[in-house]
Amino acid sequence: MSVNHQPRPAVSVTTNACKLCTPLGACLAFRGIEGTVPLLHGSQGCSTYIRRYIISHFKEPIDVASSNFSESSAIFGGGVNLATALQNVTAQYHPELIAVASTCLSETIGDDVPLFIRQYRREHPERPPEIIHVSTPSYRGTHMDGFHAAVRAAVDELAEAGAPERRINLFPGLVSPADLRHLKEIMADFGVDYTLLPDYSETLDGEIWQEYQKIAPGGTPLAAIRRTGRAMASFEFSGTIAAEHSTGNLLKERFGISYLQTAMPIGVRACDQFFTKLAEVSGNPIPDCYRKERGRLVDSYVDGHKYIFGKRAVLYGEEDLVVSLAGFLAEIGVIPVLCASGGESGRLAEAVQAAAPEVADRITVRDGADFMDIAELAEKLQPDLIVGNSKGYPLARKLQIPLIRVGFPIHDRLGGQRLLHLGYRGTQALFDRIVNAVIERQQDASPVGYSYM
Amino acid sequence: MVKVLEERKGQIYRKGSEPYAMECGKTSLAGSVSQRACVFCGSRVVLYPIADAIHLVHGPVGCAAYTWDIRGALSSGPELHRLSFSTDLREIEVIHGGEKKLYQSLVELIDRYQPRAAFVYSTCIIGIIGDDVGAVCKRVSAEKGIPVLPVHSEGFKGTKKDGYRAACEALLQLIGTGPAEGIQPHSINILGDFNLAGEVWMIREYYEKMGIQVVATITGDGRVDQIRRAHGAALNLVQCSGSMNHLAKMLKEKYGTPYLQVSYFGIEDMAEALYQVARFFNDTAMMRRTEELVRDEIAAVYPQLLEYRKALTGKKAAIYVGGAFKAFSLVKALRILGMQTAVVGSQTGSSEDYQQLRDLCDEGTVIVDDSNPLELAGFLKEKGVDLFIGGVKERPIAYKMGIGFCDHNHERKIALAGFVGMLNFAREVHGTVCSPIWKLVPRYSCCGGGVADVG
């Protein structure tokens, strides 16, 4: 019993990509660090498109600076532009940190960004902001690789050794602000100090303001990132990240901090694993409220199982999310007949297999996918529902089946940033949405229109 | 007063305080967080609505992914424009060159979709690795028998305006390659309307009612074969001047076709756009039909506009849009609704554009070129506006401060052109400014409840 891993057929063109570029992922992650302005080293368009795209999901201001390459910077190098940009960002925003991410352009001409930053620091000895850098050539990997690389770069640059603390590092990956808030609540309920990185729970889902804030309040404090080097353990939600890209692994190698790399806690099984491990690491029992949430979740599984048993779902998105959702769907009796991602870690098939063993032989896994592939496979597989971000809407419309919106981007609905899908509570929300979507579809298709279940 | 970077001070002008002087047309200042996009963006937005052509973005995946179906440009037939094709370059191609992948991608797409033409957009990285896109296009064009046109839109080679230019150059390659038979003397091309929410359909109907043949709509609801015979039209009408003036000029030079600048936003400008054409053809019967049309259309919307005007009179607005020409119409349209424009700016205006804005606006109006979020937020607060009109990137600036916002960019899905469009615009402005929710935002309490009342 193993998943059917179908590599993408030999076509050259990508049609309707199921991924975004690496600098976008880096910008998202950097928005989760307190007092930070992301700066893209490249053309103006990259920062503008990325801002526009992120706004469509989060509906919050997202200022991303650019070093504004011109033709001459493309020829002679972007060092001068970067220095100007650092200076102007400092003058306008007074940030604590400027986080520089490279683009395909600056990478290809071979700009030595770390060198430029060292020069800038030398020339500006008057307390400049902290400056960190991550290499994100957009032709290598997806936005998730950029996201993980940015988190790793921040820790790489800032983490300090010191006396061990009773503290947990939590690297959640690309989840919603609502998920981040829930994780913070869980950590608080366990009574344990933590560093959650990134934390855009406020910066990308904040309150309305009286005065315009240059940098949205919130985010992981720099001090907390520095303390990641003294924690007792790290949790990294990822089913697919390789050791050389893993922040948990970096901290393990440099400071000897143990880490658990695990799928996102979605579904009873994955949540049990997370909560059990948290109890173990923190030395505190699982708080009663979560036992009750778990109990209610299982109770609702019983109430709803008939409506969804054997339903076939097409599932796509970031690899880590796909792995986690596949595990959850398998657990409730829905078969994720297609698990697709634009990512190409090479680990998706194996991770899906591990997460959804009971239905593995009925799953097709496609990595490096675009929406043309997904649509073609979906038409053959005849699914009952689609689970993924807004980009599956044209497919759902064509197949006339429900789309359960999860992940990023959700730009055709309000509240994508407030969707909760982690923990027992998040799983509950997701479970109810899935069951109700199936029921609604049955009602709509019914000639009678029964209103009692 | 809003704090502004020293290098940007010349790009901001306050009417009344000083003699008119405006710096513009500059590349954006590094680190200023400009709202502008790039050369690629300019080309892509202009050519995108041509619905029976393949639009292939040659480069890494981002540029294509961020422009997948974002425009509201509708087609009455094929919908190839709504798919996002990319050569999705990887490291290996960056090292060895992407020509082979480009060739294969084009062949696959043309075999699959049988398009009438293909446009290939060069992104930043293509300019650096030096792929000979022109040669690949030529080869595929010869093999497949359709026009395959390179669009030189490397992002770093200037501003969005340079992208408009690159798009116009590509269009010029197409125009003149089709038969011009069967075109009447009273005929036009509509340039620079992108058929957002079906706008070009309305405009086309107005002109047809006047007795005019519309040869090509460039590029809204555009078709390759129409565009190929556009040189046969007697007159070109340029709606979005920022993007299409260049093409109109080139067509005048090459084919002697005269052109007029028009605007379809607001009832004043819309009516004038029709009269201009009737005057051009100097035909009494056509002028009479035009007068009737304008009268009927205005009569149909005016009573409702007056209702909105009652509720909106005295409210203040800010405008920050891509092209300055659009801003002129917006200032006038807001005036019809009784509203005053306190801040107005654009990403790409020229010195003459800003001078015209200055003449149009009231004393004290802030006029700004290539602004950024911090400046815009500052101006909104300083002027205490009730409404901000802009694009997606401007929206959260307004909303965060508890200020109403209307989209007026190429991504919108509501028709704002034409007489009906004015009514849609008024309805949206009204629903925005007069919503009771503003009473709950902090700004309301801090300015003593001075914001909107429900009208």
Automatic annotation (TrEMBL), chain A:
Q: Which UniProt keywords apply?
A: Nitrogen fixation
Q: Which domain of life is it from?
A: Bacteria
Residues annotated as domain Nitrogenase/oxidoreductase component? 21-438
Pfam families, sorted: Oxidored_nitro
What residues form the membrane-spanning segments? none
Q: Which SUPFAM superfamilies does the annotation name?
A: Helical backbone' metal receptor
Q: Name one GO molecular function term.
A: nitrogenase activity
Belongs to which family? Belongs to the NifD/NifK/NifE/NifN family.
**Protein name as it appears in the record:** Nitrogenase molybdenum-iron protein NifN
TrEMBL record, chain B:
User: What Pfam families has UniProt attached to this entry?
Assistant: Oxidored_nitro (PF00148)
In terms of domain of life, where is this protein from? Bacteria
Q: What does this protein do?
A: This protein may play a role in the biosynthesis of the prosthetic group of nitrogenase (FeMo cofactor).
* InterPro entries xrefs: Nase/OxRdtase_comp1, Nase_comp1_CS, NifE, NifE-like
Q: Where is the Nitrogenase/oxidoreductase component domain?
A: 38-433
State one molecular function term (GO): nitrogenase activity
* Recorded family membership: Belongs to the NifD/NifK/NifE/NifN family.
Entry keyword annotation includes Zinc: no
Q: Does the keyword Transcription regulation apply?
A: no
Keywords of this protein's UniProt record, alphabetized?
Nitrogen fixation
Q: Which PROSITE patterns match?
A: NITROGENASE_1_1, NITROGENASE_1_2
Q: Which GO terms describe its biological process?
A: protein-containing complex assembly
Query: Which pathway does it operate in?
Result: Cofactor biosynthesis; Fe-Mo cofactor biosynthesis
Provide the protein name: Nitrogenase iron-molybdenum cofactor biosynthesis protein NifE
